[in-house]
Amino acid sequence: MDTVAMHISNGIVDPATSAVFAAIALAGMIVCVLRGRRDLDDRLAPMAGLVAAFIFAVQMLNFPVLPGVSGHLLGGALAAMLVGPWVGALCVTIVLIVQALVFADGGVSAIGLNVTNMALIGTFLTYGVLALLLKVLPRTATGVAVTGFVAAVVSVVAGSLGFVLQYAIGGQVDGISLGGAAGAMVGVHALIGVGEGLITAATVLAVAKVRPDLVYALRGKRLLPSTPKSTVESAA
Amino acid sequence: MTNKPKVKLFAFLIGGLLVAFVLAGVVSSFASSDPDGLDSVSREGCTFDADDEITGGECMAQAAGEHEVGGPLADYGIAGFDNEFVSTGLSGVLGVVITFAVGGGLFWLMRRRKSVKE
């Protein structure tokens, strides 16, 4: 069987635990819909659709991280930076639902587990991180890139720990060392986080240069020029 | 009112979608086919044969069931297509279209119906 499984398959975590996380994911999504509506206007709505489509595309691009092991973008930090945490979590959720229902990637019964790890943990934890970093760092290209990178690393490692927690509660195979799994997950996802960080930083910078108003985390402000001398900005 | 953006929203969206099409349609074929982080950790402890079936040991992946839906685009390919480049690329492009249609459609229905200009 030549399956391309990128997310948690069905059967890995028991049905009761999967159901609990499905309820958590659903509750999270309802909150995101209610709060996200305030952010969604004629400009953010199509942008959010594009962010979802872009995350779907980049998730297909597995890059090598160790011999025999690859990684791919999860997208939580990218979504949070571009369209905010509420709409961002919905973007990642839409990607995960399309992947589970159309591409047989991630079990349908495991959808709540995957949404919790990648959409909820991935976006919200990192939105806190990046909101903080953007206050401390200058609003220059470097500052925004560093923010995106750090937020992405944190989001990927935290999401991988979400899986370890779920497996500790409802893992279906006895005799798996949880400590070993946690160490392996954090180790490999720290490496994946570097890739995620580079992609996130590059993408956010590209958008910020063309349309800074479409970067939610900048809150309508432009990037500052990195050299203070060149503040002459044409017609700014 | 802030100054006019350099690139119109419509042009930005078209450009972004084109990038997504190229990534999912072309670059995807050059992606690593090794198991990803989660997959490799869940395979730890088991041995696999050439067909990637578990032959022994104990690992998280041994509890994995068949996918509940499957479908013609399962595993990012198009069922019945021999050419892997075309199969992967086409399924990727379809995925971008579906995700943009579903996501953009839902977000458009959810949006505030007030004018943006304040």
Automatic annotation (TrEMBL), chain A:
Protein name as annotated: Cobalt/nickel transport system permease protein
Record's GO cellular component terms: plasma membrane
Subcellular location: Cell membrane
Ranges annotated as spanning the membrane: 12-34, 46-66, 78-103, 115-134, 146-169, 181-208
Native source species: Phytomonospora endophytica
UniProt entry keywords in alphabetical sequence: Cell membrane, Membrane, Transmembrane, Transmembrane helix, Transport
Gene Ontology biological process terms in this record: transition metal ion transport
Alphabetized InterPro entries for the sequence: CbiM/NikMN (IPR002751)
Pfam families on file: CbiM (PF01891)
Protein topology in the membrane: Multi-pass membrane protein
UniProtKB/TrEMBL annotation, chain B:
Major localisation: membrane
Transmembrane segments: 90-110
PDGLE domain location: 11-112
Source organism superkingdom: Bacteria
GO cellular component: plasma membrane
Keyword Transmembrane helix: yes
Pfam families xrefs: PDGLE
Keywords attached to this entry: Cell membrane, Membrane, Transmembrane, Transmembrane helix
Localization, UniProt: Cell membrane
Keyword Membrane found: yes
Name by which UniProt lists this protein: Cobalt/nickel transport protein
Organism in which the protein naturally occurs: Phytomonospora endophytica
